[in-house]
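[Solved] Which block belongs to which protein?

Original post:
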Amino acid sequence: MALHVCAREDGIRRSKDLPAEIGKYPNSTNERKKMSNKTIKQRISMVAVTVVTAGLFSAVTAPSANAGTLTIGANGATSTSTSGLLSGTTGSAISSTTATGKMLLSGQISVVTAAGALTSAVVVSGGTIVSCSTTSDAVTLSADKTICTTSSNNAAGITSLIKPNAVGTPLVIMGKTTNSATSWSTDAAITISVVANSTIGVFDAASSFLSVETSGQAAADNVDATYTSAAGKTGIAGTTVVNGGSGYMGYFVKDSNGTSLSTVIGANVTGGCDVGAAGAGTFNAASSTTANSYFQLTQSTANAPAKCVLTITVAGVAVGSRTFTFLGEVASITISGQSVVKKSSTANSAAFFVAALDTAGNSLDNVTVVPASAYYNAGLTTVSNVTTIPGSSSATANGADVTCASAGTYPMQMAAVNASAVTIKSAVFNIRCADTPVNYKASLDKASYVPGDIATLTISATDSKGNLANDYDTIGTGTTAAPAISGGQLTAVTAATSTDTFVNGVKTYKFIVGSTEGSYQLSVDLPKYNSSTYSQTALTVAYAVKASTASVSNADVLKSIVSLIASINKQIQALQKLILKR
């Protein structure tokens, strides 16, 4: 069975002089009142019955802006117009299940069951049948105008004009095959959402798309794009734009029915940016009625950092905005995280870190920073270039590698050429190079502790020339020469391991002091550096644990007693004076 459905707003001429009810479907009011409760219940449940056999609906649209069509067949998918409302397009087939669509409250739908389907009735819920007819049999329209039946199963098809009841109440149209008051079978059904006429052409945020894009394209969803930097950093917000680049805001604006809006779509921008052909703070001169497009942002002043807000408007009303940050050219270079490098033929990784900044203090991505050649000397074999990747999770990102030929302190400066062809230099800083540690010393921060104290151990290491050790040699080697540090009534907060390194020649460890009083020795043994050549052996550091008690002398006790007696005497005198006054 197939239903041909078309919708139109003005309706069609009602069929007149329909024949009296034939068969088992009462038509008059009196006859309907006599219907048994059982039969009424069957008619109600019939509306919601599950599809059980393959059916066929097809739809044709009347030329009306407030109506549309939907096609339903066997084994495929429905097809509707891009407006989201039922339209005159011919859809592919679907299996005999409920198909959905939308129509306006003011619309009407013409349903024609396909010839040869042996349809007995058309049943409607959420709406009423304006008229119905067939070319081969008599038809009967129920008093509530929800059921149109034929005198018998017929192959000619039933034509019905149907209108919805209310916005928000689905209109369900069903084709029935079994001509029996006690047994109804649904061949196919159409479920149609009913929407208000006022939804046409009105911007709907839930149906529309607004998002930041990485290039000139329309929005496909409401998710802002992210960039991958030229230097390889991922996850940069799409609203961050590199110097000389463009920011893009895509849009696809629709009403609640999915209809693309053909209205004026524009953009306002505040801050140091231009949108389209317009200047900052003005309405975009290139605004159009294209519902599916984008706006492009650029810096108002070349090479200058800027922060601006782009607001998209539909028919003059703001519907969404984004804040874009434009990065400027390199204006300064900073150095941080300097390490004491190791004298070696192998480069020391991330010996110091570099950042390139614009005048607004933004860290710049993909800037190549190099050593200023004037600061090379024989002590430093190499200092690597750095390509900046701000915010990278890598521990060595933005770090320069340094190879040191001999121990000593060497001045260095880093530089980069900006977009204006100006060379920007860092302040001069020192790179210190030290040899491998050969001696070490140990000390505690106090000579005596009370239970619960935190004791701090400081180990300082020096090379053969007495310079503080570098930051790359570890304090131990695996398990064969692992550090051993222990002392009575001391529990390490973090135990020493072979992979620990000195920082500017110093390494510290903390311990929790126990409760047992006494004098103790802390043993500090770094086997990796114990050597008779440099007279280095394990060390011991003396310390004590004492209870926190304060002694009180007899004189202090006597003084307190005298003070108490004097206070009592004053109170007695005051009480006597009070009594005498009464």
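(Second protein starts here: sequence line, then its structure tokens.)
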Amino acid sequence: MRTSDHGTQDRIVEGKIRDGLERRIGTDRFGIWFGDRVRFEIGPDGLTVWVEGEFALERLRGHYYRQIESIAAEVVGGIVPVKMSLWEERAGVLSSEEREAATSLRPSLPTPTAVTTDVQQIRSQPVRSIRVSSPNPIREMPPQATVRRGIGGGQLRVGSGPVSVRPSFPSSGVESSGDASVREGAGRDPGGVEDGALGESLAASGRRVVSMTFTNFMPATSNELAVTAAKLLAADPIGSAPLCFWGPTGTGKTHLLHAIRNELRARHGMPRVILLSAEQFTNDFLACVRGTGLPAFRKRYRDADALLIDNVQFLGGKTATLRETLYTVDALLTRRRPLVLAADRQPLEIDGLAGDLAGRMSSGLVCGINPMERELRKELFRRHAEQSYLPWDEATIEVLAERTIGDGRVIQGVAQLVSMLQRMYRRMPTLQEIAAQAGDMLQRGPKVVALADIEKAICSTFGITTQELRSEAKSRSVSHPRILAMYLSREHTTAAFSEIGRYYGDRNHSTVIAAHRRVGEWLQGERTLGGRGPKGMKVREAIAAVESLLRIG
């Protein structure tokens, strides 16, 4: 590839790529990682990005490869193969004269320490490195290893010797920690669980896992209380009350657990923060019963600096595991250690969960997370579009946000599908092409709502059971949700007043008519409703929450 005799057209193209990349990632970030210290070269084989140093190369390849590929395709008007290589490798293919001429162009990237300092200054937040300890030390890729294009635009190194696996750096600037949260037992790492969530997961260009932090979590009305509680606990964990998140799948519970763990490790120096699912906790308990015995198991979890358990509903009905969980929770609470739990329902509604454990979970702060509203879905699609192969148009984002059903993982799946279709068609696919491949991930028309759907959504929003909703109870915590259920049943279904009355406890049609009229009065007066859900919920807020649940099913 040429070094100093670039044609005018090549220099123009390279300049447009640099300008487009600076606009995409921001001037500050571009100045730190690119600026005039990384060289772009257009040649017959595509675009080559020359970078000095393994650290910088791995950082740019892991975080900016897809943006460079997308910008290059946008500038050239077609697919451009992109290769990121070490500047030292370039010297090997130059003649002595070329190497001497290129010396003045050699980039001088900041050292890892300097980069960390720059990131600290930009974010105005303290950044703390966490030492990575692993039983398998990182080994360099052998020099003779070759680079081949992988599926999704990634690069696969093929050659003799072991393939190196390097830790990726999360967007918050905190080094990803790979050390075991619990050092009991060789190779065991209950705190190293990596799980998909609302935010980001596996990038299409490789197997890189993006860290789940508060920085890349998207707050909204549906999760405002939970995010606030999570940040408060992360800021002041000592002696904090138990924290419990509950809500449908894909609303960000796992993401918040990971964000809390990262903050506790980075800001407070807690090395033994355990994050795992209830299933992993159960499997570890059973393995210890059959093997090393319970003393090692109890020491591992009860001596932890903090314990975070996801999918607590998995424990329902498992008597022995529930008993051990209760003792572990009591031990942590006695020692004033942070305890965070997450489930798909409120603790008191989890089938098979012991009452005493549900009481412990409810003794602190219980935060419900509602399904994502339309604006949040749009923002998620925009974030995925930034990482996609080609730019998206706003009309496509609007329609996909309106027609996407399910949780945040479904949105991620649709975004990955669009990116793959871009590569297949070498252009942005039409909505018809996306819908043809998306299957049930996209809603094809107005959703048919049944009385059972409204009943389920009302119970979930207000924290009551179906038996209570249909009962003769007169308390505000039950009667207000029942009245709202009758109103929404009339608004969203074709059922007659008499049919609605029979469904909600064999009431007559006049009761339903009166309920419909009463909600209309509530809407005019901004009435606050009773119930066991969020306190002080206004009528409009309650209706929005129920209708959001109806949209996702």
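Accepted answer:
You had them paired correctly. Confirming on the second one: The two ends are 56 Å apart (CA to CA).
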